[in-house]
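Is this the right way to post structure tokens for a design question? Let me know if I should format differently. Anyway, here goes:
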């Protein structure tokens, strides 16, 4: 009985490296899948510097925009279309009025509109939005 138990324990110990390597391979595959699905940030550089508003004195905006995407495929597709995305954002931002730019609520609604705009661009060009979110990492206005 003792001998049978000892043999069973020894056989388990001898097979342990096989189990461990199978578990390590499964973890490595999961890590690779998670890495490709991780959030990535695409910074639209250089910063946007433009005038806005339609009445009165010239008003200026300087902002930095980052787009959040998931995965390397989405990042490469969005990066490929940066010029078109920048153009549409310049047109959108320059069409704004002071009441939007000078309040937190206005900036948040502008962020949502800008996100919808860049998603629409990607749907038009690639058939899928690819962009998860849009962030203003800097937002300075001069009235």
């Amino acid at each position: 009985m003792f001998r049978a138990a000892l043999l069973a324990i020894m056989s388990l110990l001898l097979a342990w490296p096989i189990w461990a390597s199978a578990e390590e391979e499964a973890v490595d595959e999961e890590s690779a899948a998670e890495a490709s699905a991780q959030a990535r940030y695409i910074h639209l550089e250089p910063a946007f510097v433009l005038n806005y508003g339609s009445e009165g004195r010239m008003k200026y905006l300087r902002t930095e925009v980052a787009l959040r995407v998931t995965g390397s495929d989405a990042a490469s597709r969005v990066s490929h279309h940066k010029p078109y995305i920048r153009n549409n954002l310049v047109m959108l931002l320059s069409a704004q009025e002071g009441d939007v730019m000078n309040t937190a609520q206005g900036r948040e609604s502008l962020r949502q509109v800008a996100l919808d705009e860049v998603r629409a661009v990607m749907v038009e060009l690639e058939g899928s939005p690819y962009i998860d979110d849009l962030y203003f990492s800097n937002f300075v206005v001069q009235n």
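Format looks fine. Someone answered above. Worth noting: The chain has two domains: 1-36, 38-142. Residues 56 and 132 are 36 Å apart (CA to CA).
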